[in-house]
Amino acid sequence: MDAVYTKPGYLFRRMQQIAVSIFVEECREFDLTPVQYAALVAIQNHPGIDATRLSAVIAFDRSTLGSVIERLESKGHVERKPSAEDKRVKLLYLTRPGAALLRNIMPAVDRAQARMLAPLKATDRKMLMTLLSQLVDLNNEVSRVPLRAEDALEHLGKAG
Amino acid sequence: MDAVYTKPGYLFRRMQQIAVSIFVEECREFDLTPVQYAALVAIQNHPGIDATRLSAVIAFDRSTLGSVIERLESKGHVERKPSAEDKRVKLLYLTRPGAALLRNIMPAVDRAQARMLAPLKATDRKMLMTLLSQLVDLNNEVSRVPLRAEDALEHLGKAG
DNA sequence: TATTTATTGACAGTATACTGTCAATTAGTT
DNA sequence: AACTAATTGACAGTATACTGTCAATAAATA
User: Fold this and answer.
1) Does residue B52 contact residue B62 with C-beta atoms inside 8 Å?
2) A158/chain B closest Cα distance in angstroms
3) Which residues contact B11 (CB under 8 A, 6 or more apart)?
4) What are phi and psi of B49, to 5 degrees?
5) In angstroms, rounded to a whole number, what is the distance separating the alpha carbons of residues B31 and B139?
6) Which of these, A145, A47, A160, lies nearest to A94 by C-alpha position?
7) N or C: lower Cβ tally within 10 Å for chain B?
8) Beta-carbon neighbour count of residue B116 at 10 Å?
9) Cα separation values, B135 from B18, B77, B141, Å
């Protein structure tokens, strides 16, 4: 009867649910969701990236990313500029307020990340993160949008 | 630069993304999402449960659950019957085809659950599930809809 | 160079998830 | 019994996520 509650599928869903809840709570005053935060960080790390590459860098669906960027743009955190070389793409940049927001939200994000693991002992926290990192990495190709961190470097001419 | 990829928030989101992807892939022929599956199992275990209690049993948002049940009903897997005692509630039951579906989908679900953890060694799988179970349990009150498995027994007059 | 193929962003459609509100109804209190 | 609280299901609104399609454009190839 209790079998469901010990299965990985249930635990992963529930943990994600809790993690989002904590993030939103800690970052309420900044009005930023986990996804929006991840996108902002990636744009900061790769200024001038385009939407398709961004989706690979943060392992996001491209279809979803469009509306995420739209919201970030309407809040004034991000700018979209047409590329000179390729008329199809729009390059993404943080605005000055967007960069400031990212600096200011940092403590709240750190608090959120810490709270997610807070109930565990330090050694258990480390163990869990290690195992999850391995599992996510080894399962990378499974989802529709596998993580491709190296893609982000291409637009800087550092492709491998 | 790679800091994000080692943070719990990222790993939980990514793992959930991968888990859903695997589930949908393995269960494609049955046209059932993880959420719909969880709801069906809970209704099977607690025939005559109402939507509000169901949401507590599977740790789901009540608002979301409405449309989930609607879809299950339109597929013919679930029946909603008005309660005689309380005119507000609608009691949930599996249909015969719904129960059959649940029997038939079982191997696919088991395959999915196994695949999620497949890349890890057996001892690591066990360790990960143990740690995650603890963490989810200890963080239970955080999210909007904490798990209340005991709620499911009330409608059978077994409340504590 | 002309044709095919691939990429990019946009969009339509479905399915979770959440916040918040509402009316109908029930339960608890005075 | 009358009033108040709480519960229930429904709904409106926002934000992920996914599948799949499309036109514009670019790249590869015949």
Assistant:
1) yes
2) 16
3) A129, A132, A133, A136, B5
4) -75, 155
5) 32
6) A47
7) C
8) 26
9) 20, 33, 11
Residue A35 CB closer than 7 angstroms to strand D? Answer: yes
* Residues in chain B, overall count: 160
**Sole residue written with tokens 């275990």:** B45
Q: What is the pLDDT along chain B (160 residues), one digit of tens a residue?
A: 457 788 899 999 999 999 999 999 999 999 999 999 999 999 999 999 999 999 999 888 888 899 999 999 999 999 999 988 888 899 999 999 999 999 999 999 999 999 999 999 999 999 999 999 999 998 888 776 677 766 555 544 433 3
Tell me if B160 is assigned to some domain.
no
CATH of the domain at A12: 1.10.10.10
Find, among B76, B52, B79, the residue nearest to B64 by Cα. Answer: B52
**Residue A28 belongs to what domain range?**
3-156
List residues, Cβ < 7 Å, touching strand C: A 13, 17, 20-21, 50-53, 62-63, 66, 69, 86, 88-90; B 33-36, 60-61, 63-64, 67-68, 71, 85-88, 143-145
- The total of structural domains in chain B comes to 1
| Closest chain A C-alpha to B71 CA, distance in angstroms | 20
